[in-house]
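Example (one chain per record):
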Amino acid sequence: MSEVEPKVWRLAALVPVVAAAAVYGWARWCYAAASPPSATVALVVGAALVVGAPVVYFVCVRGSRSLFGALLLALGLLLTVTATDQAASRAEVAACVVREVKEQVNLGGEGLPAERTTYRHLLNCPGGYPDELTDGRRLAARGGEVRVAYDPRHRVSPAPEGTGSSWTAALGAVVLLVLSTLVAAAGPFRDE
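Predicted structure:
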């Protein structure tokens, strides 16, 4: 192993941290900014970050564990995007009054899932949006109040406040990014 290789190996341990920060910053800007980039630009730059970082990692780490670490890194970056999206997608909350609740029973059949009931809540919200909320349970009776989390740009469906948590995806991202960092930081096997 040459003098340069140990330095490259140690720098590879920084790739997951730098890549996660870059992906989070890009995704946050795309999802939460008042003037985000176009969908094409967002997708191209995001894909370049999610694919490019594992390639750099793979080249820097080398050895038998580089592929495993690069895969962990790629999955961790995808979960970072997911967590960012979930955190930013329903940024506003409104207290809405239920006008009407429509119950729909979806019958299961042979080979289909069992019978399921869906409740469509027609709402009166400040500003007029959202005007309805569908859930698998009755959230309130007619005249009752429901707190609804929604995206003011109407990109995702509204949901009851507190039901869309980004913690699961964020925790998964942290675990995968830490593992990829540990793989890089461990250094090469003696026989490599």
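Caption: The longest helix spans residues 66-89.
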